[in-house]
Structure formats: C-alpha cells, structure tokens
Amino acid sequence: MIRRDTTRAAERRAVLVAVKPPLTGLERASGTVPLQRGDVGVTWKRAGRGFSLDADIPVNVRAEIHVPARSAGDVHVSGPGGARFTGMRDGYAVFEAGSGHLTFRSDHL
Predict the structure, then answer these.
(1) What is the pLDDT of residues 4-45, one digit of tens each?
(2) How far does Cα 68 stand from its chain's mean position?
(3) Contact, 104 vs 77, CB < 8 A?
(4) DSSP bridge partners of 84
(5) What are the tens digits of pLDDT across the range 43-73?
(6) Residue 45, by phi and psi: left (phi above 0), alpha (psi -120 to 50) or beta?
(7) CATH: 3.40.50.1110, 1.10.10.10, 3.40.50.1010, 2.60.420.10. Which one for 2-106?
C-alpha cells in the first residue's frame, strides 16, 4: 500500500507518503503513485523467510517505509542518503527516507 499522508504533510515542507506492504497474503507487488512532484514507485517481494522492497522517491518527497521484520537489525538499507530507523510497530521496522532509489532487505520474517 502506498498512500499520501495529508495529516503530517503540513508539518513539513515536503510531501509525505507511507509505504506499508501487508504482513501476509501477497508474495509480490509493484505500483506507482503519481504526485505533483514526481512518481513514487515501489516494488516488493517475499522469498522464503526474506523480504525485499525497492522504492523510488522523488525530490521534495519524504517516505515512511514499513518493512516486515522482527527487529531493526534484520533490515539492511542501501541507497543514497539511506533511511532513518524510527521504531518497531506491529511487526514492521519503520524508516523515514528522503528522495532517491532505496533498497530494503529483511532476512528474518
């Protein structure tokens, strides 16, 4: 699921989007959400006990990305600028990230 968060956007100068794949059910999905500042693209998949998510975030857009994981240590993030871990919530490691292409990998679901 990708959605624009209008409740927190006013607090910041950048648009905020939330990316939250379901914990169970689908094995993979991809999608694009057009925003005025550019397209947000997300592709994710599960394989065995692993999970991967690729996100393309346009300039002046912030993303709150939820990665299924047991702990923050299970998640590896790569890409320019990286992402800041903000906490564990309901089976997800939650990160905040800025613009660019980011890859998240979780090794233990």
Answers:
(1) 554 454 455 668 899 999 998 899 999 999 998 899 999 999
(2) 10
(3) yes
(4) 96
(5) 999 988 899 999 999 999 999 999 999 999 9
(6) beta
(7) 2.60.420.10
Q: Which amino acid is at 81?
A: G
Tokens of 90: 């309901």
Contacts of 36 (CB under 8 A, 6+ apart): 15
Tokens (6 digits) for 42: 């997300």
Answer for the pair 17, 32: CB distance below 8 angstroms, yes or no: no
| Token digits of residue 32 | 């694009």
